[in-house]
């Protein structure tokens, strides 16, 4: 019973640590706001920028496991290439060392319990302030306090080895100095990191084990090497079911970390002596172990990144050979499913990147649908049956996209978001619904075109030319707005969109009046009413498109 209670204490302490880290991470992300988006945009410039982005992103989310899952998700969404993803992964491995330093310096050099409660005392009142910036700051303090409270409990909950000599004798058999014992500790570090799903949390555990004398310096260093492998497994499982590029990114992460671990194992004892020379104090005294381990973790990951950085392109080619295949393009004739990869430490603000990418894709599908309608209208000799069937499938696909994306965005509203991100979610909800309305009106135009041909309703040449012109004007407007979906629209661009919509309205009114005039002059009533129906649906498309442009004004 005592063993079960002790185990619950350790698990509960670790749970407090992870929960505090998550709260602090959310606060940091919200406080970063637009700067975080700048960091994410920075990752595509070059390999060094990608590495720095991975470092900054991991510092923000406080978990390289979460970062690499996000990277796999970005690759899956087409936001990152494999080469860029490898660069970000290198940076993520360096970024995860920051938490180790915080824990090593503050967690074992000072009384963290004495820091934890005051941090909560500062953060708690700030949570009730109306300005979001103060709330975010309060969340950071609260997370910091809970994190170090968990760390304090974790240190106290680890059993005293003097009272458990049988455990000590068992551990001494695997002291990390022999190759076999080294591999055992690497395996243990891998499993623990995978189970807790956070490299930062597992690092805190290993530092605590070393500080309390459970493991020696070589054994603790081997655990840290295992942690670097364990953090890759989460991203690998997340990539299952994703596209080929995402699977390649996950495999590249595993290969990189395993290769890094192998070269350190070959030079293991000289590497430990180097760390002992760099860091003051003897690593084989328990009180000095946390800082030595933090330095070991940092130098290992920095050297690993520097060794692989110049060879990223060659490494990417190797991964493509090991994981062969061609990327399949999404088929609009199949059922749409919004696939996104979740991290244990969810980051709703980052998921918005995936939704924005899917929204742009939806806009392209709708634009292609309208272009095909226009071609059908201008080519009366083509087979209407097959065309109508295919366009109906595309319209149904857009309905499915609307449902899936709306449902996901509605769920995001339930998460704690910054004001800017909440505005973006609301804008995306409106855009997705307006795009679906464009698809509906476009399909109505297709059916109207089919009825026109089947019932042999012939427009006068003047009226036909007017619809051709109007079709192209509306298509140009959709294309104009589609190109702006990946960013906030400028005032000048919004004015240009409003000019487009005004031109569409004025053209509709003019063409409608001309149709009414021709009816009075004895023109065929059915053909003129058919033209007026075309004008009505095309004007609706213009209305939906200007609504999208106006929604873009709220995007951040």
Encode the helix/strand succession as letters.
Answer: HHHHHHHHHHHHHHHHHHHHHH
Report on the biggest sheet. none
Q: What overall geometry do the principal axes of the alpha carbons give?
A: elongated
Number of strands: 0
Based on the structure, what is the oligomeric state of the protein chains? single chain
Radius of gyration: 30 Å
Our count of helices gives: 22
Number of domains: 2
Tell me the structural class.
mainly alpha
Low-confidence stretches: 161-169
As a percent range, the share of strand residues is under 5%
Average pLDDT, rounded to a whole number, is 79
Approximate helicity band = over 70%
Question: What is the topological layout?
Answer:
Elements: H1 2-32, H2 34-42, H3 47-61, H4 64-76, H5 82-95, H6 97-109, H7 112-126, H8 132-157, H9 165-172, H10 179-196, H11 199-211, H12 217-239, H13 244-266, H14 268-278, H15 289-308, H16 312-322, H17 348-378, H18 384-413, H19 419-454, H20 461-482, H21 491-520, H22 525-552
Helix pairs in contact: 1-8, 2-3, 3-5, 4-5, 4-12, 4-13, 5-13, 5-15, 5-16, 6-11, 6-15, 7-8, 10-11, 10-12, 11-12, 11-15, 12-13, 12-15, 13-15, 13-16, 17-18, 17-19, 17-20, 18-19, 19-22, 20-21, 20-22, 21-22
